[in-house]
Predict the structure.
Amino acid sequence: MSNIGSYTDRLKDFDWSLAEKELGYRAGEPINIGWYCSDRICQMGLADKKALIWEDFHGASKTYTFDDLRVLSNTIAASLQELGLKPGERICLFMDRVPELYIGFLGILKMGGIAQPLFSAFGEDSLLTRLDNAKTAAIFTQRKHVAKVRKILAQLPEMRHIIVVDPDGPPLREREVGFRLDQAKRVEQFTVHPTTAETPSVLHYTSGTTGQPKGAQHVHYSLISQYLTAKWVLDLQPNDLYWCNADPGWVTGTSYGIIGPWSNGITQVVLDSGFNTERWYSLIQKHRVTVWYSAPTAIRLLMREGTVVARRFDLSSLRHLCSVGEPLNAEAVLWSREAYGLQFHDSYWQTETGSIVITNVPEMPIKPGSMGKPFPGIEATIVDPKTFEPIDQPARVGLIALRPGWPAMFRTYWNNRATYESKFKNGWYISGDRASLDSDGYFWFVGRDDDVINTGGHLVGPFEIESALLEHPAVAESAAVGKPDHVNMEVVKAFVALKPGFEPNGDLELEIMNFIRKKLSPLAMPQEIEFVKSLPKTRSGKIMRRVLRAQEWGEPIGDISTLEDD
Ligand code: WT7
């Protein structure tokens, strides 16, 4: 029996107060995610239960109980206070998937700080943009990443402390402080900052079409949705061994890689390494993983290896599979039935939504290729892109729109109220994704309504890539678009017009690719650069990425009446 039971029964009289009751939360009282994920689980008698089983690629392993989470997050919270950090200040986590990242997240929240997780593969420009925007006061990092922080430190006057979690080695520099979790004093008692429902908790940066990335601001009350969706969609049950593939640099890795499982008192395994078929299967086999939250790109990579490899491992412990981040194609669902005897359950949401909003819950018949139906308490529809009125006709494509007000919804974009407000039309939050609804109420994803590139489930903003390209001495103008890719769905392709005196050639192409990889990240690095004489522009001089994108996808170009006529 699944936790949710009957979807239709749950829809009747659904109220989020159900989750409040289960969590023992009463309106107006303090609510702190760090406390709920550790102290409360200990109070429920689960102090000695394993919370985190951590492994690196080579198999080095560490295990932490819920009591360890409680005490060590106290230790981190107390250390941050000793450094003079104050509630409400932004504290960044810039680390690989090491235990300090997970426990540090709880520690920051416990002392009332705002956790700002950033993907550790980010290069110095990606990092600078986000730290500068948030006026971040401190950053947790590792030796291997500290050089990137040092390079931009002069441009970050607000950054007071760089906390290095593996400090052995050459002496640390200005503003740097070493912190070793395994040697730090275990702080048994800590007074958790009395954050309340609307106190800011997590700041996740996400990319849009225009301008630099924006910080989606979440609050402690998000716990209500994250707890219940983890329980009903991921179906987490007391004896489960849960594995989420996502890195906490992205929202899946915090909402469902930290908050969802731990607020439910569930043991999770973390693998500090990227994709590798055999390593992944052996992890499932060794720890007897039962619930697995993955992503379509990973599933497509596993499909490529075939069922033969899957059969070489004992994967019989698996009982429930979910997916997020990109369209889950019907073939992937059908393949997972064949390979694991289970189907992947698609789930749809965004950094802004904070928790799963449209999904296939366990008891719901899956229509392969569909994202499923709204989670109870979520009112979702398809609206006309011009009038923002719901489209009543089944199969007509429009924009996914959500009625604001569920607990985990973002509260603003950091320092950018105007853009936040522009997301609401006619009483709906407009997701920026196109989809249709069928007559059974299932949602079918079509594509994004903007120029953001979704590569392997990671959003990359074209503006950020284009700005970085312009910093290269040879580049006069540029446009970045997604081009189709079998595994990653899309990869970045850049169109570049060179400055006079520069000739297009393979060396220059490689040099520019590497330039972007270093400045931004491997995800943002163009897989292809096409050198062009000029770029298609509107009469007002705006580059029309739409035309280039259509060319890559072999789609009709659409209305180009505003195109510059030369
Ligand atoms: C965008 C949000 C949701 C957490 C991870 C990404 C795309 C997400 C699906 C899905 C098709 C999906 C959308 C969305 N997306 N889930 N199940 N099917 N597309 O969070 O980085 O904010 O990305 O990812 O385009 O808007 P994010």
